[in-house]
Write a structure and sequence with these properties.
9 helices; 2 domains; mainly alpha
């Protein structure tokens, strides 16, 4: 075979002048991977919703649902990325007169690039939803902590029929206090007691004058002595403090759980993406080998034309 002026064979010159990246094959593989990922994710959502039951002690547990989600995510990455890598390797151009190691590297790079493009496309579409889910879980826990402290305040507003402009009702009530409280309606009395409880729970303790006044209200409606009324006030206030403390603790535990779930989900998504990158690269080498093993068959028309020219 004749050599060119620079000492290379014509086929080698053509291979050296051609780009080592077949972007058409890469984008084709990425499109296939992204589409299959979407289909599998939707299927996973459907199976997950069908496995969850609103009734207690029925359906899959939260732990089982989390494990199955992780397994399905890994399966999705393996299948979708493998398909995308195989298509990218199978559709790329054939590199003539090239060392096997270089072909292996280029096929691996094509599979990895197809996975990169598919991942970027998927991230662009779902990153908003994922971040909303993760941040929403953490914010929900934080909101629950603040909400647990404000439950009593909201109850006070509901019981007394107050609006936001009546947030200083506790101080206004103190203007009209008497050593012997006047008889008022039950709703008004409950509103006064609720405002005192809210104020004292925020401060952490019940003031002595508030305790005495509450005992007078109780004694007026229950025919208890002042001492018995004070003991009842202490008992009810202690139970209220415990209920608020339990609500805050439950909210903190919910926030911690949400944060742990978000962290665990993110770590397993990282692992699943690495698995997808590996399978995309591996499948591309297999597809590239199948591409190079293709034997081109000449048609009779081409052979006849060639013989006529000769």
């Amino acid at each position: 075979m004749n050599r060119s002026s620079d000492g290379f064979y014509p086929a080698a010159e053509e291979s050296n002048a051609r780009s080592g990246v077949s972007w058409g094959a890469i984008f084709a593989g990425a499109a296939a991977a992204a589409a299959l990922s979407l289909i599998l994710v939707l299927l996973g959502f459907g199976l997950g919703f069908s496995a969850v039951s609103p009734w207690a002690n029925e359906g899959v547990s939260a732990k089982g649902l989390g494990i199955s989600t992780i397994v399905w995510l890994a399966f999705t990455q393996i299948v979708a990325s493998g398909l995308g890598g195989y298509i990218a390797g199978r559709l790329r151009v054939k590199w003539a007169n090239m060392h096997g190691d270089e072909v292996y590297f280029r096929d691996t790079a094509h599979g990895f690039l197809s996975w990169c493009v598919a991942t970027l496309v998927a991230a662009t579409l779902v990153v908003g939803s994922v971040s909303s889910i993760i941040s929403g879980g953490v914010q929900a826990g934080a909101s629950a902590i603040g909400g647990a402290a404000s439950v009593a305040t909201q109850a006070a507003g509901s019981a007394a029929g107050n609006t936001d402009s009546d947030q200083y009702g506790y101080f206004i009530d103190s203007l009209f206090r008497d050593d012997r409280p006047a008889a008022v309606s039950d709703d008004a009395a409950r509103g006064t007691v609720t405002r005192i409880f809210v104020r004292s729970l925020n401060d952490g303790q019940l003031a002595a004058e508030d305790r005495t006044y509450l005992a007078q209200l109780v004694a007026q409606r229950t025919n208890l002595t002042q001492a018995d009324a004070e003991r009842r006030v202490d008992e009810v206030y202690a139970r209220t403090q415990k209920a608020v403390a339990d609500a805050k603790q439950a909210a903190k535990e919910a926030a911690d759980t949400a944060a742990k779930v978000a962290a665990t989900t993110t770590l397993w998504m990282f692992v699943a993406l690495l698995i997808g990158a590996f399978f995309a690269s591996f499948a591309a080498t297999f597809g590239g080998r199948r591409r190079d093993a293709v034997v081109y068959v000449e048609s009779d028309a081409y052979v006849t034309t060639t013989n006529s020219i000769r």
